Amino acid sequence: MVTFLSGGTGTPKLLDGAAAAFSPDEVTVIANTGDDIELGGLFISPDVDTLIFQGGGLLDRERWWGIKGDTTRTHDALYDIANAVGLEGGPQYLPEERQTEGRDIARWRRFSGIAEFMEIGDRDRAVHVTRTSLLDRGETLTEVTQRLASGFGLTIDLLPMTNDPVASLIHTPEGMMHFQEFWVAHGGEPTVENVEFRGSSRAEPAPGVLDALDDTVVIGPSNPVTSIGPMLSIPGFGAALNDTTVVAVSPFLGDEAFSGPAGKLMQAVNAEPSTEGLATAYPFADAFVVDEGDDAEFGKPVERTDIRIDDRRDAGRVCEAVARAIEAVE
Amino acid sequence: MVTFLSGGTGTPKLLDGAAAAFSPDEVTVIANTGDDIELGGLFISPDVDTLIFQGGGLLDRERWWGIKGDTTRTHDALYDIANAVGLEGGPQYLPEERQTEGRDIARWRRFSGIAEFMEIGDRDRAVHVTRTSLLDRGETLTEVTQRLASGFGLTIDLLPMTNDPVASLIHTPEGMMHFQEFWVAHGGEPTVENVEFRGSSRAEPAPGVLDALDDTVVIGPSNPVTSIGPMLSIPGFGAALNDTTVVAVSPFLGDEAFSGPAGKLMQAVNAEPSTEGLATAYPFADAFVVDEGDDAEFGKPVERTDIRIDDRRDAGRVCEAVARAIEAVE
């Protein structure tokens, strides 16, 4: 049994090749929920959805989010209406007092649906409506995720990291913004002063998570700060990783992150924005998988391969390196 | 100046011909909101929307609700997902404690979005998302309605009857159900024991409504019980009608209602399910417009014409009869 910790792009790309080294019924994936938001009343769980759509064969693999071939009729109409009515676009937080009302899980990250600042496809939207309505009738995010995963035909076991609200908030000189505003609306441009995982100190690992962390853990090439960081901020999560075998796949090719603002975010939390910084970010890691051109030293076992993942074959190659790294330390 | 009281079909049909007798900038329409619901977190105001889409030239005139040519991608996907996940369809109320949480206006009529029991088009949905987000940032339904009406190019003045929650609940031998469940999901079939307008005793007429009721009032051929009844249940509304000129257009051709369950609902509230019953339902009416084949007697002025409205010309003819009735009593 092996458990992957996943954000929304790097680790899903790696999981494309998991079958090269692991049987699907041995694989559990724990997904980040720090970048979940409520948008126009819908609870959206982007990293969970990427994994569901990937497992269900529906993922838009150009963007690594959303459903391939999806239409955007409602989304486009939201812009038409906002224009007609003279309403501004861009991320708009609901009023302060609304941030902590109603469904708990959406705290501190509630956005207006006016001129919807994230592009939500029409089929994709139906997933969010169904999820939100299941939450509203009292199911946990774990229950909802497992329902959807099974409905979409996933063979792996998919768990959200927690059923409690954890909001990844980015502090910048222009003020605080949720990660989705930082990334989607501002392209990761603002200077990052600090990263806060609001709610995490009172959050608990979701049911099944601590059990899954008893198995060998693979941290995929996801952003250590905003994809894996929210998990590590939950009490008990880091301790569980200390007690098991952990292999971390570098999300860096030298000083460059594969995707997303990993480098910049690492600097903001005082970690080296490169493979070396992984040792700081993941002190519990027993082995690392890094690029063959990367001469980082960790004083721990290292597997080297070409870690760029452009297709399933690349993913398989990296997963084989992961399996070798596990073998070296178990 | 003339003020129409409107539900979702009969009076909008009549308004199609308003220009034959009234200038658009002299017309105010007060819309029923008793059949508004929250569905999958979206606040939906069906009668208001029919009037907005009609005024904006977008209405689906086959159904007299929704936007013509609209697609239903999200709606269809909601069914696909519910099937895949094994979730039941049909109207599903949110849990009891959720009915009175969060935005006040949606009280007692909150439905799950799972396999969405009302068909919401994709562009239509964008209207509901925008409305809901405007409500969530603190605007009243009046403000939201006027924004949308102006954005969609309406020339008439459109007001919701109240900014407070009023829920039209139908008591049947099988239990209580919201009007939309009774009508959309059960086709108006269940036996009606009683009709309740929950919240109305504490509701206030929306800003502008009492002023509009100072003008001559036309009650269109809408359902007296569930379209006009919710308005009459609001304190102050009936008194205002007592003090002004009121002309009521019969929604009955003999014993038959034009559309909808008007006859059955009239019986449930102990009114004659025919033109005669209008005198009971509208004691404040000063004159009536009834069908030329209808020999009902009211002891009040009556204009007779062919009141079936199949097109704009029919609507114009009935509006001319309304104008004559007003002239007869003012």
Low-pLDDT regions of chain A: none
The major sheet of chain A is characterized as: 7 strands, parallel
Q: Helix proportion of residues of chain A, in percent?
A: 25-40%
Radius of gyration of chain A: 19 Å
What is the CA–CA distance across the termini of chain A?
A: 13 Å
Q: What pattern of helices and strands is seen along the backbone of chain A?
A: EHEEEHHEHHEEEHEHEHHEEEHHEEH
What structural category characterises the helix and strand content of chain A? alpha/beta
Number of strands of chain A: 15
Portion in strands of chain A = 15-25%
Oligomer: homodimer
Task: Give the overall shape of chain A.
Answer: globular
Question: Average pLDDT of chain A, to the nearest integer?
Answer: 94
List keywords for this structure.
15 strands, alpha/beta, 3-stranded mixed sheet, homodimer
